[in-house]
Amino acid sequence: MTSRPGPDVSVDDTDSIARLFALTDGRTRPRHSLSMHTVLGPGPRSPRGVPDESVRIIALCRQRSRPLVELAGVLGLHVTAVSVLVSDLIDAGALSLPIPETPGQDRDTQTLLALSAALKRRFPQATAKAG
Description:
mainly alpha
């Protein structure tokens, strides 16, 4: 029996993929529209029973507001996995989207993201209809 050539996947890579899958419950898309540059701050609540990575995200955002990509870098996790975790923490009220003080497009985008997150939290079953 001959083996077919395939991708060289080491055990460590497979373990890492399985860990991310378990961490996000298999989800690959966050409920909120977040970019890598979305700045996150602490929220009014402290959820219980969240994964260790979520606890670290909350702790980092309590130190100072941080962009999503920085959280992923500090945690050493893929940005997609962190965005799923962050989305869950926004829903739980543990993180918020602070509105920057400086005017401009970044502030407008951040304001819309904060409004969108608040509406999704308040009306989770609502859907947008065009027209």
